[in-house]
Amino acid sequence: MDDLLQEFIAETRETLEALSGEIVAWESAPDDRERLDAIFRFVHTVKGSCGFLDLPRLARLSHAAEDVLAAVRSGERSPDTRLVNAVLAIVDRIGEIVEAIDAGHALDDTGEDLLIAALDTGSEAIASSAAPVMRSPTRSVRLNVDLLDRMMSGMSDMVLARNELARRLRDEGVDPTIEAALERLSLTVAEMRDTVTRTRMQKIEALFSALPRMVRDTAAELGKTVTLHIEGSDVELDREMIEMMRDPLVHIIRNAIDHGIEPAADRRTAGKRETGWLNVAARQSGNQIVIEIADDGRGIDTARLAAKVVSAGLRSDAEVRVMSEQARLELVFEPGLSTKDIVTGISGRGVGMDVVRANVEQIGGRIELANQPGKGLRIAIHVPLTLSIMSTIGVGVRDQRFAISRQTIEEIVRVGAESIRIDRLGDTLMATVRDRRMPLIDLGNLLGFATSEPVMLVIVSVSGGSYALAVDAVLDHEELVIKPAAPAVMATGVYAGQTLPDSGLPMLMLDCAGIAQLAGLVFTREIVIEEDIVAAVPGVQALMFDDLDGVRRIVPLSVIDRVEPVPVSAIRHAAGRLRLSVDGAIIPLVALGSWEGRANVSVLRLRDGTVELGYAIGEALDIVQLPDTLVAAHDSGPIAGVVAIDGDQIEVIDLHWLFSSHADPCAASDAPLCLLEGADSAWLTTFLKPVLEAAGYRVTTGLRPGEQAGIVVTMDCDCPVACAGAPVVRLRRDAEADGNDDSIFRYDRPGLLAALAKSAGGR
Amino acid sequence: MPLFLIARIAGRTVAIESSQVESVVDIGAVIPVPRAERHVRGLAALRSRVVTVIETRAALGLPAGDGSAMRAVITVVEGHHYAVLVDALEDVAAFDPMPLSAGVALDRGWQRVGRGIVDRDGEPILVIALDVLIPGTVALAA
Fold first, then answer.
1. Does B24 touch chain A (CB under 8 A)?
2. Number of Cβ pairs closer than 8 Å across A and B?
């Protein structure tokens, strides 16, 4: 808002200056139509901006003047001296108020009624108030963006010229005083470059300000209602980047409203608020800007997406079937895939996400997807701060050097180190870096140089995955001015641009995404292998850790989203409980000890599929097999029981208790065999089984021949219950029951145990 | 009368209209561009600018030269600077360009670049357009 106000002030001031001549001319020749029009335009513009900026005084004045001038233009009134004076008085007053707003001091509004009254026919003539306008010194100027662009390109040339000078001087071995002078020049140039770069920075508000209207219109067109939240409008980004981001952002947002957010009726059925939620946030992270677009719609149905890709003939059924979930998700970027089958006039005009991704990659960015089917989709666009100057790493291949954008490099490793392997699968190279398998591209080979053994591996990440690029040497880190190369060079698909480094020899910057594409990399291999491993290990895996109170404990791996260190400053006792701020959100935190004296604690981020919870630990130790036999704890609490691992007694965290956060003592009962049935067996086994066992039930997920279930627990009875003889306890996901449903909320522990006890007792 | 630069390319004398020529230079080290088409000889530094060096013989569809040509005509096409290699530079003079004589059929690449002739003391010299020598400028626009 401040920006808009500043702009308004600057603009009004400028127009007033230009207008002063017109005003004088109009005064002497009130019949001059051209002058009249110029003044009319001025008050009209002021009136328009005032309504927008909520400046009622200015609005009133300009509105009154506009009315009178309109009357003059239509010939209803004649511009006599009195009228001219009255209008001029108002124009002067507008100038005064604008200056007052800029200087931040109040201006007495008496006399304004008089000024307006003076416009009326038959009113007393007023003397034009020629009060000296108090004007604060101008703190800003308005510049043409072309000028800024020229300044930037001049700056780039200056950096290059300095580089050349430095090289020449070095070659000639000049005396130290000249070198010192050059050093000073270099410092000034560097400083200047930063300043000039900043002049091109613009608040991302320029991009975001149009969104509310766009979201409203798009949603209205589709008969949906969507609430838009915008965060981080004050993040600054290169002007050019803002322009480049506009189309992808608009596309993604339209997609979110059209395909993501469901119609109100569907949302009600899904237990969501009728109004859709859309969050657009920008933040700076290092030399990157991250723009995140999140919605609470239906997310991407990867199965349907995969089916569509197959039916469109873009991928084979077999190919899609072996893909991991993430790889299937990435199919939205498949070229040629459009949402044409559901054309709505909003999206689905044949421009696919592949174009969006290409646009983002073209400016050195990447897109990440986080999908929660049924719950929403989060798209994060990472882009560099500026296009013109890039942080690069120089690599050598045979006798040629190339630059790689530092942003895409994950790490650099030397071949021959212990944890690095290079293998051939058929004719395809593959690298294994610390148990992580990834495709390997021999850069020399790709560029058609004579073959040689890889020496260094540069691991680069492109959207979709990472791969290793084999080079001969990794040279140095340089800040370079990257310029686009000639079309004939870009056509190779290998290069992102060209530059002239200090060496004075031109250098090409590699386009890592383009190289992956040329080499025909398909990012499924790494993930498929991981899945195989997971599938091969039977039973439940669990993480063993030392807790904050020094006790060794264990928690099933499937529930851990990730383990990450957080600064203790992110932990607060707020609103009645411990909470952790992480990734811009606040999640409840459980800690069984104190973290005094530590700067960081490791936090397990636990997830039951819907709700997230933090659990602070001392140190993660190992991943182990969770033993089948659990000795139940005496009381219900954070500990479900104890298991024996390698002769040690290890406490098992009670996930159910953690997530329900209610430590109600459970009813003791000698209930018999309890059968867990239904689609959500993972939740039932991981969360519920320990609770039931602790309550003295025998629990199973499948009946052996001859066994008779005493009681059946099922989730959201969408599947028919097999054994009709036994009483059934139904659980539901939502806290609120819909209708006269006798189901029990799955975290309602006392209710659940009471129902079990009742059913078991009534047998 | 427009000014023409008289040069030798692939052993032939040609005339290049001076409006297409930014400067005439001797280029230094050329950094190859792997995987580029063969008429892109590489990149060279020209003062503080990077220019794309065009192997003129290859662009004309002729067998490549010995790579010793270092003299080049700098031309700007669509904002990019190109150094078009020439064997030698002979002269700069004003001529009256004339259309190709009826019936004259140029062969190979010359046909694409030929625009007309100028008459130097009775010797007809082919006028060529530099921009068509630059690869990729048209095809890539799509």
1. no
2. 85
How many of the other CB atoms lie within 10 Å of CB of A456? Answer: 18
Interface confidence (ipTM) of the complex: 0.89
Binary contact (A486, B37; C-beta < 8 A)? no
Q: What is the pLDDT of residues A680-736, one digit of tens each?
A: 667 777 778 778 877 777 777 777 666 677 788 877 655 555 555 677 788 877 777
* Structural domains in chain B (count): 1
Query: Coil, helix or strand for A490?
Result: helix
Q: Which of B34, B78, B140 sits opposite A491 (nearest CB)?
A: B140
Tens-place pLDDT, residues A150-189: 887 788 778 778 877 887 887 887 888 888 888 899 889 8
| Token reading at A581 | 């701020």
Angle A375-A268-A741 from CA coordinates, rounded to 5°: 105
Per-residue confidence band for A346, with pLDDT thresholds at 50, 70 and 90: very low
pTM recorded for the entire structure? 0.46
Distance CA A403, CA A503 (A): 13
Count how many Cα atoms sit within 13 Å of the Cα of residue B80 in the half-sphere of its side chain: 25
CA of A141, closest CA in chain B: separation in Å?
30
Using one digit for the tens of pLDDT, what is the confidence trace for B73-126?
999 988 789 999 999 998 899 999 888 877 788 877 888 888 899 998 889 999
Q: How many whole angstroms separate alpha carbon A413 and alpha carbon A458? A: 7
- Name the residue range of residue B15's domain: 3-141
Q: Which residues of B114-142 are buried (b: 16+ CB within 10 A; e: fewer)?
A: bebbbebeeebbbbbebebbbbbbeeeee
List residues of chain A with CB under 8 Å from any CB of chain B: 157, 160-161, 163-164, 400, 446-449, 483-495, 498-500, 504-508
Query: CATH number of the domain that B16 lies in?
Result: 2.40.50.180
Give residue A722's pLDDT. 53
